């Protein structure tokens, strides 16, 4: 395969920056790279393999044929522009929720259901960050014991709401410590020294969008369309790294030691020696591409249940890393490149 | 009843300070008040009804007969000294875990099982903070629908680990923002911009002490010795106010509207209009004596389940307020005072 032309759409956002940073060392054979941003960030100079690349505003004039477009620009931009890139021959990997509910668009976590990438496709959807890390942890256990239900409470970092949310946490933390008034731009309430059980809009029954995504996307990724899943999604004053308290119930009795072995065998990082204060931590997972699992123990309220603590960097495996891994699978299978097979 | 002599033991700690502050406006008829502290804080001048009170180090020489002793000095101090105060005629209300597992000692949340305070007792145990707020929220629902199981993930503020833990969070937050190295004295890992799934020591199966307390104390308070309860207890970078994601399963189908009505009728503060961004928040609950419940919705994974979000000030209803309320019940029933009935 010859080198590919790759566009990163939303290149200056929290996730886009990570996609940009990951590409040079990935197995995607990048020859040329384009950066697209919103109008405010257009003109920003990015560096790719020591060469400057000027970010373009995404519009009719700037769009051009590429082999691969990595999108992290929100659902509206994805719905508007991903089909345009696809029409010019690109494969689009989109990190937004824009196509995740579209059953014609594969929703992929490579180590969970990568086998579905068995042909050229126009668009591949990257799942929700909270869902990816939970499914990476549960898929190996599901294969062994048959998943029957999930309850999950999340501790999600503010970077999941974008770069501006990170600034808001830092600035308002400073203000709160100084006794100054905090200003709210991204979050509906102060996030400094607080937790907010509110991620995305609410439906009439009181479930948030994030909670609905965790159910629907988990069902799709595991191929279990009726799996009972109940999530409570909560924003915590952490910059990077989502943590999750998960209860998983199975068809046959699971055991903690077996779970650790299955997870290690699947490439999951098991950090589980709580008496030595060893368990996954958001700050330590930050900047790392893996999913970390610990606090694996029997669910005292369910003889077929396990409790787990799952942590990952939401900007990496929860977003940029998973998107680049999808592109790597497509490249390895010869499904990328306008002149490919 | 004539005025009582009341001792606050641990008077300069995070909870002791709140007990001290609450006493003058309580229904406990306080005539004289004594402050006991550890040796480091002895000599501190506290103010009670505009009069200075000098804190004494708790030792053989300083102990004297009182009518009521409010203890918040840890389990070791409680086990050592509460029986001594009791032997001199006091009723002790102890906020530590020192006596909670002792079935001869009543474990009380007044609005849940206050009827057990039906006689003079030497020692009454105040439950664990996380347990109190959850049980206040679940007891009215249990009476209506019959509780069958609980799963709970907590978001616990650092004040639950004492005043030094609050200082550690503030100082290390400042250091982290300044790029300086953080120092650890209370927590085993950095708590600034992080979450730690570690509250209390771990048993061989990997359950923390706090998680075990939530099960054992909930069972005792609700009189359900076999109730399945599974907790994951997590410290979050919040100064004051514990939040909890609770799933409760019942014998008969619950409904969210009925739950709101039952809770309001029981004096619980229902804040539940998520589409208007109204739900309980740790920072807003801080300094208030009530338990706040919101995000009440069907548990999508259990037809007989409800999901709830429960928040309260862990230093108040979770500790000092509940202890003072126990004393108020004892006073109203004539069970306080060395010369009483």
| CA(first)-CA(last) distance of chain A | 9 Å
Query: How helix-rich are the residues of chain A, as a percent range?
Result: 25-40%
List unreliable stretches of 5+ residues of chain A: none
Broad structural category of chain A: alpha/beta
Number of helices of chain A: 9
Q: CATH superfamily membership of the largest domain in chain A, which one?
A: Dihydrodipicolinate Reductase, domain 2
> Most extensive chain contact?
A-B, 60 and 60 residues
Q: At the first level of CATH, what is the class of the largest domain in chain A?
A: Alpha Beta
Overall geometry of chain A comes to globular
> What count of structural domains of chain A?
2
Quaternary state reads homodimer
Which strand order spans the largest sheet of chain A, edge to edge or round the barrel?
5-2-1-6-7-8
Percentage of residues in DSSP E strands of chain A: 15-25%
Structure explained in plain terms:
2 copies of one chain form a homodimer. With 341 residues, chain A is of the alpha/beta class. Chain A folds into 2 domains: 138 residues, NAD(P)-binding Rossmann-like Domain (Rossmann fold, 3-Layer(aba) Sandwich); 184 residues, Dihydrodipicolinate Reductase, domain 2. In chain A, 30% of the residues lie in helices and 22% in strands. Chain A contains 9 helices and 14 strands. A 6-stranded parallel sheet of chain A has the order 5-2-1-6-7-8, with helices on both faces. In chain A, strands 10-9-11-14-13-12 form a 6-stranded mixed sheet. Chain A has a two-stranded antiparallel sheet with strand order 3-4. In chain A, strand 1, helix 1 and strand 2 form a beta-alpha-beta unit. In chain A, helix 1 crosses helix 9, helix 4 packs parallel to helix 6 and helix 4 packs across helix 9. The radius of gyration of chain A is 20 Å and the shape is globular. Chains A and B meet through strand 9, helix 5, strand 10, strand 11 and helix 8 of A and strand 9, helix 5, strand 10, strand 11 and helix 8 of B.
């Amino acid at each position: 395969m010859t080198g590919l032309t790759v566009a990163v759409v939303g290149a200056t956002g929290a996730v886009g920056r990570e996609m940009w940073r990951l590409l040079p060392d990935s197995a995607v054979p990048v020859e040329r790279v384009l950066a697209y941003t919103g109008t405010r960030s257009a003109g920003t100079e990015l560096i790719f393999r020591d060469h400057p690349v000027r970010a373009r505003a995404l519009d009719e004039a700037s769009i051009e044929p590429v082999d691969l477009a990595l999108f992290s620009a929100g659902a509206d931009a994805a719905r508007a522009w991903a089909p345009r890139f696809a029409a010019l021959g690109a494969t689009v990997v989109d990190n937004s929720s824009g196509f995740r509910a579209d059953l014609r668009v594969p929703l992929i976590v490579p180590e969970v259901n990568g086998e579905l990438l068995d042909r050229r496709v126009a668009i591949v959807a990257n799942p929700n960050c909270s869902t990816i890390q939970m499914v990476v942890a549960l898929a190996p256990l599901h294969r062994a014991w048959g998943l029957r239900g999930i309850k999950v409470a999340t501790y999600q970092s503010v970077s999941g709401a974008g770069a501006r949310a990170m600034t808001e946490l830092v600035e308002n933390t400073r203000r709160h410590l100084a006794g100054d008034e905090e200003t709210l731009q991204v979050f509906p309430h102060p996030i400094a020294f607080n937790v907010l059980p509110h991620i995305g809009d609410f439906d009439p029954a009181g479930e948030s969008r994030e909670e609905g995504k965790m159910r629907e996307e988990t069902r799709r990724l595991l191929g279990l369309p009726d799996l009972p899943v109940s999530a409570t999604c909560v924003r915590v004053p952490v910059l990077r790294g989502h943590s999750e308290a998960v209860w998983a119930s199975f068809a046959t009795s699971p055991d903690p030691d077996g779970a650790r072995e299955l997870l290690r065998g699947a490439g999951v990082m098991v950090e589980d020696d709580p008496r030595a204060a060893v368990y996954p931590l958001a700050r330590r997972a930050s900047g790392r591409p893996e999913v970390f699992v610990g606090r694996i123990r029997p669910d005292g309220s369910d003889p077929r249940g396990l409790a787990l603590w799952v942590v990952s960097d939401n900007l990496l495996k929860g977003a940029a890393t998973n998107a680049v891994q999808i592109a790597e699978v497509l490249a390895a299978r010869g499904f990328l490149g306008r002149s490919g097979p």
